[in-house]
């Protein structure tokens, strides 16, 4: 959606042509007004030639009324004062245009007010409003000030519209930046979910497929059981992938979304890992019911990713302990193993970074490091009252 643009009339589209036309019209009207006098100026005397020259200069100055409004008005005012002392001439129409331009195009309000005030004083004195006021004199003075006021109001309106345009453009830029940030955050979240869903299942399938290939000749039944486990893990991964894709669909897609994994699914996760090789023991303490769903999902994903790292890096014959402990206003998740530690490359992938991001989104703390007596430990402290919905 583009920024709204105000309508621009012909005077704004072709300013130079407009100013030339105004200067010509002002000169023609001035000469027409002089011709109606009982003794119009002629070219016979120096005074008459000077009147025509002054009128021409005053009208010519209107060509710069947009760029130098107060200077143009000063020139027109000076020309008008000179004509006052010429008996055959009587004012210049350029005064009306220069007074309007002073209000419309002068950026400095004080300068514009001074020019309008000076014009008002001149008209009051020239029309004799202090001594012998007349309806014509009052009307001429009021109309002159009205022209300046109209020009000033139009300037204020133009500045207001310009501010609206700038604000609209600024808001559009902010919305664009915010949209880019939202897209980047969503990509990060999707990448984290994809990693958690796919990496664990693929690790299980890789280990089970390798075991099946190794024992296929000596123990066909065990190999068949391992391949069945690979098939089951693949179907489970596909199910979770469908759920993730369902989350990414529009809300009105009509497909019901399945439940997200939670703490009660940890025993099934532990059984899956135990079937692959590592010995995993799960221990829970405290009341784990009624926890926020986002927190339960984080606990499950941390355990899932940590056990995936155990399968990939810890080595054979490894024991791992998973502990979920509720302590008043927080839940502490700890996964330890007696494997090779970080020397096996646990810090090289995205798993630990993804776990840390999940914990920080809930306002918790995260630690992943080697244990003093060997192995590796992942510990996350998740506050219950700071869930991010």
- Subunit arrangement of the protein: single chain
The number of helical elements comes to: 11
Straight-line N-to-C gap: 31 Å
Q: Structural class, judged by helices and strands? A: alpha+beta
Number of strands: 5
Rg measurement, Å: 43 Å
Chain-averaged pLDDT: 82
Largest sheet data? 5 strands, mixed
| Bulk shape | rod-shaped
Bin the helical content: 55-70%
Strand residue percentage: 5-15%
> Stretches where pLDDT falls below 50 for ≥5 residues?
344-348
In which order are the strands of the major sheet placed? 1-2-3-5-4
SSE arrangement, N to C: HHHHHHHHHEHEEHEE
Total number of domains: 2
Based on the model shown, name its key terms.
2 domains, alpha+beta, 5 strands, 5-stranded mixed sheet, 61% helix, 389 residues, Heat Shock Protein 90
Can you tell me about this structure?
The protein has 389 residues and is α+β, with helices and mostly antiparallel strands. The protein has 2 domains: 10-170, no CATH class; 278-389, Histidine kinase-like ATPase, C-terminal domain (Heat Shock Protein 90), CATH 3.30.565.10. The chain is built from 11 helices and 5 strands; from the N terminus they run H-H-H-H-H-H-H-H-H-E-H-E-E-H-E-E. A 5-stranded mixed β-sheet has the order 1-2-3-5-4, covered by helices on one side. Helix 4 (69-84) packs antiparallel against helix 5. The longest helix is centred in the middle third of the chain and has 81 residues, at 135-215. The two termini are 31 Å apart. The model is unreliable at 344-348 (pLDDT under 50).
